[in-house]
Structure formats: structure tokens, C-alpha cells
Request: fold
Amino acid sequence: MKARKLTEDELDSLKRFISDKTKTKTETQKAQAILLVNREYPIEEITEMTGYERSQVFELRKRFLIEGVESLVDKRKGKPKELLTKQQREEILETVKTKTPKDFGYTAEHWTTGFLGKWIEEHYEVKYKSKTSLYLVFKKASFTYHKPGRVYDKHDETEVAQWKTENEPKIRKYWKQKDTVILCADEMILTTETTIQRVWLPEGEFPKITCSTGGRKRRNVYGFLNLKTGQEHAFKTEYQNMYQTSAVLKKIRTIYPNQNIILLWDNAGWHKGSVVQACIKEDKRIIQIPFPRYAPEENPQEHVWKQGRSQCTHNRFIENIDEATDDLITYFNETLFSYSLFGLSASPIL
Reply:
């Protein structure tokens, strides 16, 4: 049975409670957690924003429905007992600032609440019941929250370095040739699944992102960034395969009918397929340079995708996949991008 929604009176009492400046941060977070549940916000996001686990959140809601806002008031009198001494807290801050989990035998290169909590428990025999105290440690250390980028397990930095050594002279030579275009290419997929990013809002305001429940639809986008001009050429397709790729390459040729084309892209199967290779051979003026394996960060086109998603599709409910894709492609094709390769890029955009 689905839990009932809070009444208007209950909602108003929570909002007044949050606005009360005499309330502690812990008390306010309890009220915020209940409001977020009522707005059907994903539980993992509520946990991240308030520090309360799933069971704690629903226990808070249960008690609020029975006792009202009095259930949120901190019953402890006076200053809470410190679990760690001042010297220990200073030692922890210094550790977070100067070391990584790897220094203590863990596998991670960056601190998380999980690794920090485990380290504190092992070294000081203190275990925090919630993540709030750990968040405060990071805050005092002047750390900020980040979503990590991807690093492929097969990424080979030696291979990347060798690729740069072999290809930088070639690209710089082509850069000087007026009749040569340098295109960095890639593909992306847009779906009706809402992509939610961490957002920051004024205190007391809560985000709500609508998500699709009618099945996921998708469209593919081929993108080619002209490194010299910063101009993007994006095309919507139903699929990513060698036939679509060949058709898109022919469209690129109509844009640059007389130039030599230096085409940098990855080793995707639809790039290496027989139909595509026959198209390139027939063209006679396209030179392919594959990016190193498992190194998407080397491709400037990847940054174009990221900027476009941030501007057009993140935190947005995509109801019509074709309209959303068309809007995204319009943004790509009407925006100049000065992303660089080997320090070479279009002039800065003013």
C-alpha cells in the first residue's frame, strides 16, 4: 500500500520548522528528509543530501505522522558529547588533506565517506552512526563534492603517450595546410531516461525531476568537431552502424567538397566496417587517425557532448525524443567550441 501524502497543514509545519533559525542543523535535516520523501525524491539522493539511511528516513516520517514536529526536536541537553578529542580531530583533518586511502592499503585513490569512516573506526575505535559527521570533516578540510569521471581498466598511459609522440607532429603539419580540415569525431546516444545531476538550490527549496515510465526511447547523434574553426557538425540517426556511418561521412564531404579531411575517431566497429572503409577508399581524400584505446578524454568531441548535455538535456524530462534530439543538434551546430588537441584549437570564443 502506497504511503499517504502529507496534508497541507503537515507540510506547512515542516516548512516553518525549517525556517526557524533556532533549530539545529540536525533538526532541520530531519524535516528536509521528510519533505523529500513526500515529494518522491529518489532515496539515494535523500541519503546523499541529508546523511540519513533509508530506514532512518522512513522512521523519521513515521514518528512525524504520530507526534508532529515535536518528534524532530533534539532531546539532548547541552553540548553533545564529542566522540573524538580535539587532537584526534586535528589528526584526521591533516590525514585527509595530505594522504589518500591508498596510503593505508585501500584500493581507492580518493577519499569517500565510506573509506574515511572505516579508517577512523580502525585507528580510533570510533564508529559514526550517520555520514553527517564525516561530511563535516571534508567541509573543514575544504573538500568539495565531485562526481568522478570514468577511467577504463584497460586504459594504458604508455600507449597514450606513444600515440601523442607519433601523432602530434602530423597534426601540427596538417594544421598549417589551408586546404586541410581536421575533424574529431564521435557518437552519443540520447534517451528518454532523465539524467539527474547534483543541483544546488536555496535552503528550503527542493528539486523534483520528472522521469519517464513509458519505456526508454533512444536516438543516436554523430558529431564532428572542426578543430581549426570550432564549428560542430552533428547528425541524428536511428542507429550506429557502418551503413549510417558511411552515409554521414558523405554528408561531411558535401560540407567540405574540396578539402583534405583528417579524421580522428576511436576504434568502434562501425568505424572499421567494410562499408565505411570502402567509402573512405573511394573518397581518396580522407586520412584516418584512430585515437588510443580506452582514452576518450583525448578526443575533444567528448567535451562537446558533455557541454551539450549540460545545456540541453540534464535534469530534463524528455517526452519527445525526436524534438529533444533536434534541439540538441541545433545547439551543437549553432555553437562554437574551442576544445584543443595538442594545444591546437580554434581562437577563444568571445
User: Anything to note?
Assistant: Confidence is low (pLDDT under 50) at residues 194-201, 208-213.
